[in-house]
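User: For a reading group we're discussing how well predicted structures match intuition. Take CHAT domain-containing protein. Before you show the prediction, I'll give you the sequence so everyone sees exactly what went in.
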Amino acid sequence: MQFKAAIEWSHCAHKHQNIDSTLEAYTTAFKLLPRISWLGLTIASRHHALLRYAIHLARNGAAASLLAGDLEQALEWLEQGRSVVWGQLLQLRSPIDDLYEINLDLAMRLSSVALALEKEGCKENSLMSASQSDAKISPEQAIQKNHQLADKWDSLVKCAQKLPGFEHFMLPKQFSELRQATFHCPVVVLNISIYRCDALIVESPSMPPHQVHLENLTYRKAQALQITLQKILSADGIRDRTEERHGESAFEDHSCANEVFRHLLAELWSSVVRPVLDCLKSCQAENGPFRICWCPTGPLMFLPIHAAGVYNADGLALVSLADIAISSYTPTLSALLNRSPQRDKKPAFKFLAVIQPNAPGGNPLPGTIEELKGLQKHVPTSSLQILKGPDATTTTVLSGMEECSWVHLACHGIQDVSDPMQSGLLLQDGRLKLSRIIQKHITHAEFVFLSACQTATGDERRPEEAIHLAAGMLVAGFKGVIGTTWSIRDNDAPFVADKVYGQLLKNGEPSGVHPAVALHEAVQELRKRSGPNFSSWVPFIYMGA
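Assistant: Thanks. Here is the predicted 3D structure of CHAT domain-containing protein, as structure tokens, for the group to look at:
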């Protein structure tokens, strides 16, 4: 009730243009947010609560901060109010080495409670899983036990915060820490609110953030672009390979869909990308593209910013972001932290290839066999583990992921619209669900290529939570992920995979080329081959550090 009152308060303060009152309302709401998405609830319950109460909180709060000229607070609130559940999982897994040195007993108790909370929270259905996992405990007792664990966690964290030097222990990250996310390249956070639309640019850890007001973009316009893209993909039959098309298509023919796609990319260029590039002119080198990481919000979560540009009818670009910059994406700034290449010890190169050409319940994927042939050209037999067809079960794949630092998954991908945590990869014995993948904490994980459909699509009802397979792989521990934003064509996947690994691997070992760069080059070649067919090359994206 207090949270809902704070949201209403913010609306009223916005309406009357009382900036001090607006900021006070949002400050109150953000203090209450941890209770809305309480750790004592299952992940599904937390997602439901965030959808019901806090879907616009982060973006609107950031807009208010920008009106007040406080860019750092805007970034902090966006971080605190987006990908909340992923952030909680990562927080439970955070190393607490410093605390072990100060108070061993407290650190051990915190670690124990964190492990138990993560296990309970990841259960798909608290009532069902509780009754099945332990017949001696009733569902009600299991729920009560989880609540007690959450209360114990809160109590232990407060004890730690009383220690000298631990005043900010487990509190939301401040900008001084978030700015370290630009270790690899500039990060552009695109805040799309009903009140205003802005790009927040963090170029490096040593520079203050810049703000670019996106004058030609509104929330409604961004929504309209998202709807347009959905119509294009449905008309092309690739928004979801399982959906049946009834009645007339939204477009008369394929060329008409491409024409609409061309206009959409031009609008993204003029409204979003060009103003950002104008601010980043110092990064643009004459000798080739520079790297840039996008962190979109709202409707822009579902739009191909990396492909923005002005294209001719034949698909050739007059000006294109892909010719200027190598784009990657991140769900939050925190997802880029603690992922620098300065690890104490590089894991041994072991490669898992999961090839599923004929999964029960799915259409045949003959292209996956070609993918395997391409992989075998680049990966030596001594480093390659293959799980193919009947051998590629949910259990064997998860075990293989725990053993190998690089993973390639060539199979059907499914974004579950009704319950996004049930999204997954279709294997021999069923679906390897997102809810199972995030339970893994693979410390040696390096890179995963999700050569499947809809692995970075997300849930349109909850854009800020990034509930898709690519983000789930980051939570599981992988530094970087290649994924797809919609269904991909069978012939395109082997082509892109072959080109990517041709750059990533030399003489059977990692070459040092960044996966974002390798994907960029591969997609550029696919782009030349595809001509005006934008839906062929646009869906491939890189996510992570």
